[in-house]
Amino acid sequence: MKLSVEQHAAVNCNGNAYVTACPGSGKTRALTARIAKGVKDLKHKNNKVLAVTFTNRAADEIKTRLEENYTIESGRVWAGTIHSFALEWIIKPYASYSATLNSGYSIADEFETRRIINKLKADKGLRIFDDVNTSFNRQGMVENRSVRAKEVEQEYRQILSSRKKIDFDQSLYFAFQLMEALPEIAQTLSNIFTHICVDEVQDTQDLQYAILSKIFNESHKKPSLFIVGDENQAIYGGIGGKSLSLAELNAEFMGSNINLFTFSDNYRSTQRLVDYFSVFRGIQGGLSKATHRNEHGTISFFNQSVDKDRLAEAISELIQTELNSGTNENDICVIAPQWAPIRSMTKKLITLLPQVKFDAPALSPFHGQQDNFWLIVSKLVLTESSGRLLSARVRWANELLNNLMESHHHTRDLTAKKLLKVINSFHSNTVVGTEYLKECFEFMLDELDIDLAHDLLLKEQFDLFFEKATSNIENNNGQYEDTVVALKSFFKESTGVVVNSCHGVKGEEYKTVIAFGLLKGFVPHWSDIINQPAQVGQNSESKMLYVIASRAKEKLFLFAEYGRRTQGGNPYETSAMLSAYNYPYD
Ligand SMILES: Nc1ncnc2c1ncn2[C@@H]1O[C@H](COP(=O)(O)OP(=O)(O)OP(=O)(O)O)[C@@H](O)[C@H]1O
């Protein structure tokens, strides 16, 4: 992968590095190059590079970029969210040392936790969008602003505990506690992970910093650090994400003496777009230069001129015009600042544009199941071994084997190739999607000689997988019917027009971005307005607008639709920052 002089200097820096730079300046590209360099520099066959990302989607993107641009053994890199890291490398191997975990536990995933919290919120008279924080700091405290939110959090914990479950936030806290009690955990991890790379560091929570720094601070031979981020894009403050200064990073990673780098070019957007979104930067720095600076680009703002009931039609017309002019489905993204209006928008778009394919997590039959073992098996049986997916399939097979090895020792001799052979040999005549998957899972268990009755965790995931998939399919407006063909289409390489929240597409880029719901209450979110100093709302608003607008390579369409009303019946107003931005829109 080609690197600029600035990128090259950061990637090849001898010590530890922190890169802070604008969106589109190639931070993730540099991080990927550093991971590849890290793998080359590994001294021992057991060493690995650790790459921590914010979402599973971002981890997949890094793995794909590595596979496409470098020839490295995928097993030498562990890339994923810090939650998955804590589970796989700390909780699972050391659970027996924890008084709470050693009597057995399982993980409550997003689907289950959301269901419990929403029910408790309704019982306590909280609205669906009222924030309830469930994340711990390193002292084991969970901060909630309102008494009712605190009560929800406490009752939620009691319910989980009665089910012998822990959620992702607890998995971080238990991991940290285990590391505090047993310094050899951090030492072992630092012996394995001689390189630690962190993407989107501005969204890292206190406890996540604590876990990473513990590995660094307790180690005899320090891992090398490569950290990238952009404080202006810190949109996870609501769930405890915090950006650290260089001095704070140096204090957290003791004696790390981190070198600071910044990149000044923008490889993504036209200069007009760069100038447009740079106004939303809370922390102003040097203006970045667009490498496509000669191209103009489109920026349109539909301020209050579109009724919310006409919005889907207006957006569908824009999508159609873009497609007619030759833009690829994958290069169009429809974004809302919050999750709330996305589901209904997706359903309407699908009805209005029946020929167009959509990549809409809200309607995915597998939504909320990223961490389920059976989702990986599904990916293997529903995809073909060709093109971009060839190496991804080997990676997925290895992930399955890693999962199986702990409790099913006889699978230790199995290789990814053999496992793929087993799955590829599955055949069924059924056309019903979930039935096909069930038959395949049973076939695989049989072939691998695994009895679900003896593996309660896999059994629970098996049942949850089908419960959720069936409920998603029933609620998704016929986008993914319960057929083998429909489920296969979900995992095809090119998946279609993306409809997602700005949190869901962080770090991504699209030729055309269509944003809607740019209204006070969504940007910023009510929880950053109600009972908050004005500065909190303004910070959150500028960061979200910055992230949204900087996803666009060439065209940006912004909607602040009218007609939406709050629960109290008052009309939503256009985001104050957009209202005040006097810009010559097209
Ligand atoms: N040196 C380079 N030469 C050509 N293209 C580049 C270079 N560096 C980055 N790019 C391209 O620019 C785009 C943006 O890069 P990347 O996603 O790494 O930016 P980023 O700084 O991580 O953005 P964000 O902050 O939004 O996550 C990508 O398409 C990437 O391939």
TrEMBL record:
PROSITE patterns: UVRD_HELICASE_ATP_BIND (PS51198). Keywords: ATP-binding, DNA-binding, Helicase, Hydrolase, Nucleotide-binding. The keyword Nucleotide-binding applies. ATP binds at residues 21-28. Gene3D superfamilies: 1.10.10.160, P-loop containing nucleotide triphosphate hydrolases. Residues 1-270 form the UvrD-like helicase ATP-binding domain. Coiled coil: none annotated. PANTHER family: ATP-DEPENDENT DNA HELICASE SRS2 (PTHR11070:SF2), UVRD / RECB / PCRA DNA HELICASE FAMILY MEMBER (PTHR11070). This is DNA 3'-5' helicase II. It comes from Ferrimonas lipolytica. The lineage of its organism: Bacteria, Pseudomonadati, Pseudomonadota, Gammaproteobacteria, Alteromonadales.
